[in-house]
Each structure stands twice: as C-alpha cells, then as structure tokens.
Amino acid sequence: MSQKIAVFSLSTTTPFFITGIYNDNTLIMSVPKSLPNSLKKQREKVIPAVQKLRNSGFKVLVEETSGTIASECGAHHVSLNTRHTDGRAAVLVGIERYNELRLQKAILLPEKNPGAYEIPSSIVDVDYNAAGDVVYHINWQDIRPEHRLTILCCFSTVYHPVTSADYINAMTGGGEEREANPFFRTFANLIRHQDVTSANAVPASLSGNRVSENEVIL
Predict the structure, then answer these.
(1) CA distance 31 to 19
(2) Cα separations (Å) of 188 from 5, 76, 161, 192?
(3) Cα separations (Å) of 74 from 16, 48, 84, 117, 191?
(4) What is the pTM of this model?
C-alpha cells in the first residue's frame, strides 16, 4: 500500500516540515523545509499547506504541544509520547520501525546531509529491572529536530487511526455528498473532537509508565 506522508514538527526552537512517500515497503524522505517560530506566522503558513496536502491524499501529522494548529486544519495531533495501538509511545515505535527499515535497506533519508537524520542507538537504552521487566531509558536530550522528523516519518508508516477524520472521509465517499448528509456531517464533527481530546490526553512525560506487562519506561 502506498502512503503519502507529511510531518510538521512545531515543538522545537527550529520548526520543520517534511514530506515522504512509503511505497513498495520503502520509505523515501524529502529534504525538509524550515517553518516560522511564531504561532501567528505558523497559522498563516502551516494551515493552508496542511489543507492542501490533505486534499492531495497525504497523511499529515502535526507534532506540537497544544494541538492548536492540528485542530484548526484537521491534521493528526501527535507527539513523541503519543500512544500507538499497542500502548507503546511513538518514540519507541518510530525508532523500532526505523531500525527495521534500515536493516531491510528500505529507507532513503533526505539527500542533503542524510547523516543528520540517522537515529543513534544511544537515544534509547534497554535494560531489565529486578522483576525481569524490560526497561527503556529514553535520552531525550539527545533527540535533535532532525531525529524527530525521522522518528515521526517512520512512525507514520504504521500509524493508521481508524477514527480519524481523513479515514472516515475516505470510507464515506465524496465530499459534497457527505457534507449534504447530516449524519455524516455530525459523525465527522465527533471524530474531529475525538482527535483533539485524544491527543491532548497524552502525558507530558513517559517516565514511570508501564507500556506492557513486561515493559516500563524510565
């Protein structure tokens, strides 16, 4: 299955956005572009860009703390702490997916300075506690803005929220007919609200969280 991916990372001092395509089990990342720092300028630039990308069939992830931009343009509000369907955080799923793609030689990093987007193994240390649980130590200070783009692009390849507005749109047919139907219009509004509340429920820190019966994050 081919996926068109766009990631807007707004939670750092150097905001970026990147597009990519996941086709034939290979992820190809484009050269990222910088974004303005101020919320006002981000609204002016990011919101129209996201709407255009969504209309072109892109899965759009916006990484930000508040969810302000994502909620205004219908994108997926995510963070590195966002929980995947298996309960693990996006940072763990994304890095695991990156390692898998690298092993399979199925990822092409941005052509300009590709080394900056490689994920060092030092970001996550795996250990075991006295009870035999797997313990993840995440070295957050080592995660650079370029790493965030790679992690979230890799995470996006396995991120399929069936309750998202875009998924519902794809399943319910054309836009004009759907908007004319009060049932679909109300249902879509509920889904958008759920997207926002789910993303905002993500904890600020993963420390101390148990992600499975035998896995803990410290």
Answers:
(1) 8
(2) 22, 14, 14, 6
(3) 19, 11, 19, 27, 10
(4) 0.78
Nearest CA-CA partner of 157 in 86, 203, 96: 96
State the amino acid at position 89 in one-letter form: A
Residues 6+ apart with CB under 8 A from 59: 3, 4, 5, 6, 76, 156, 159, 166
pLDDT in tens, the chain (218 residues): 789 999 999 999 999 999 999 999 999 999 999 999 999 999 999 999 999 999 999 999 999 998 999 999 989 999 999 999 888 899 999 999 999 999 999 999 999 999 999 999 999 988 888 888 888 889 999 999 999 999 999 999 999 876 555 555 555 554 454 455 554 455 455 545 545 444 444 444 555 565 555 455 54
Identify the CA nearest to 136 among candidates 45, 74, 61, 209.
209
Q: Which amino acid is at 58?
A: F
- The first and second tokens of residue 49, run together, are 């860009």
